[in-house]
Design goal:
Blueprint lengths: L10 H44 L1 H29 L4 H4 L1 H15 L4 E5 L9 H21 L5 E8 L2 E8 L16 H10 L3 E6 L5 E8 L3
Parallel strand pairs: 1-2
Antiparallel strand pairs: 2-3, 3-5, 4-5
Helix pairs in contact: 1-2, 1-6, 4-5, 5-6
EC number: 2.7.13.3
Pfam family, one: HATPase_c
Organism: Alicyclobacillus ferrooxydans
Length: about 220
Amino acid sequence: MGYGELPTYDHMDLGIRLLEEERRRIARDLHDGPTQMLTNISMRLELLDHMMDTNPGAAKQELSRINNQVIQSINAVRRLLFDLRPIAVDEVGLIKAVEQLVEKYAREYELPVSLEVKHDIGRALSPAKQVALYRLIQEILNNIKKHAAATQITITFEQVGQSGVVSISDNGKGFDPSNIPAGHYGIVGIRERAAYMNGSLDIVSHIGRGSVFSVSVPLTS
């Protein structure tokens, strides 16, 4: 099997694997985000109790810092809820849902994402496939945010023959697609999501020159 080709999976087995991977991702995000923040807040509150008697001025400053960390924890939980909540793609359409996702990245991460729609491929996809493609785009964006150190992302929708193609490019640090450390970049999960839609994934990336993820899925005739 050559690079860029996807193995054939039993869809029920793959669906279970994707569900379990999603649960592991949620557990990691909760542990690395809100859980650690709340643990730190608890420790600082214990220290604050002592400072109230010994140094009231410093205690007041520490209370302000703790309050800021509480706000950060609330925002982290809100981001997780945004990622988990059901997306009414069948109501607003794939493109509109991605537009909302792009707005979120600009607002919360200060990461500009340009959206170019040459064809509204969502109109030729079933509601289930629209949701699956939305989640795949979301996963690619999350991986770029975590690993690429990019300052600009571009998402392009177009139709090529009987396939819908979504290309996501970034100007980040790039990587070697043929030499990805185990568990890095989430490439395996992204490939499996593409395979789940009977689609394919192609990656072009060079160190220091960014990356392009191209997902191709068959359209409903």
